[in-house]
């Protein structure tokens, strides 16, 4: 176990799950505040409360020959994956599971989304959600490789796949300073796997909402909450991997971690409002012909620095 | 005690999901039942403290099944994949093969004299796994793997330079009539 981060009792997992949902709610509240303008229906900080209450009272839609099992698994899976990711995320000085391969665990969980979003699209037995599910896989094929190599950069620098070691390796100098490309690619990937713009084609308006088209009631609530939970946890990982985790003066580590995470989450929420939606077929070239070589060069640079430092 | 119970539960899940692959009548369910089976196996590997192999098994298998679902459903002719269909064929032959393989593996597991453990596990199993696989060939592997990877990506890019929908990065529009066929090469279309 590394200095600085200690593993806490598994009972805290309950608190972690609640914290993930609270962070997701904070993201939704920020989003609501950003949408607020005079005369707007359902906007402002309390919009998610109103929307959540409305969806909880709404009847769940049933469709002919729906694959209910896969649909439910896909819909409920989004928040579950967010919580499973958080299991290896150092929250200031505490972590639920100090897995030696925590970074690979995070990667495996974000690959889970390939299956879950597709299942959420397949389940209703309707055309628009199915097209949405396929669109997500097309996007995922494009963003996953740059994401994997962006994850490699901090792991190479820290010489470890353990999240605690990666946080400890940023003592003095945050990784974002000398691996900005990996940081940007990672942030873009967070927007991508949490189905936010510019990567929201699976939920786009031209598909009548795509994966969301047939989801109503608690199903819709879980999908929307899952998106925000994934964005929150993804921001948390960006902080742990690139922004020094809980390091900062005076205040305790968890306060710094939380402040950085919420700030990055809000920045991502603001940024995505100013970006147009990317068509899935247009992302492949940008991701593989531009982002992938840039990330590989970043990893190569990091490797040279690590070898030179000895 | 708890570990044993967990192991048994995971083993049962792996086998039950494996059976479900052939009992279901939906291609999507069969695919993800197989994925669930592999995830259970990956979790069992985690129980052996083989963290890296366990997590990578989960990662690879889920990714593989997601891709497999696309291709299976895309290329199934007039798309019976969207309709209920049987997941078995050649029942007699596959029963014989499966039974035979099971007997051989089970006999091997029971009859081979397993050696006792010598020494203790390394503190970082991921590092020692890499050392064991690569060893003194590390430099070769490190040189070859980026080359292979770059070859894969560039072969894909070269094979389909214009993409299916529009050129990227933007290529000049091909000159259709006034220039002869000998000038076509530079647009990237190729002959």
Report on the architecture of this protein.
- The complex is a heterodimer of chains A (about 300) and B (about 190).
- By secondary structure, chain A is mainly α.
- Chain A has one domain.
- Chain A has 11 helices and 2 strands, in the order βαααβαααααααα.
- The longest helix of chain A is centred in the middle third of the chain and has 32 residues.
- Chain B has about 190 residues and is mainly α.
- The chains are: A mainly alpha (about 300), B mainly alpha (about 190).
State the order of secondary-structure elements of chain A, H for helix, E for strand: EHHHEHHHHHHHH
* Helix percentage range of chain A: 55-70%
Number of E-type strands of chain B: 0
Poorly predicted residue ranges of chain A = none
Please give the count of helices of chain B.
6
Oligomeric state of the chains in view = heterodimer
Instruction: Quickly give the structural class of chain B.
Output: mainly alpha
Using only C-alpha atoms, the radius of gyration of chain A works out to 19 Å
- Largest sheet entry of chain B: none
**Class from secondary-structure proportions of chain A:** mainly alpha
Shape of chain A: globular
Task: Determine the strand fraction of chain A and express it as a percent band.
Answer: under 5%
Strand coverage percent of chain B: under 5%
Share of helix of chain B, binned: 55-70%
How many helices of chain A? The count is: 11
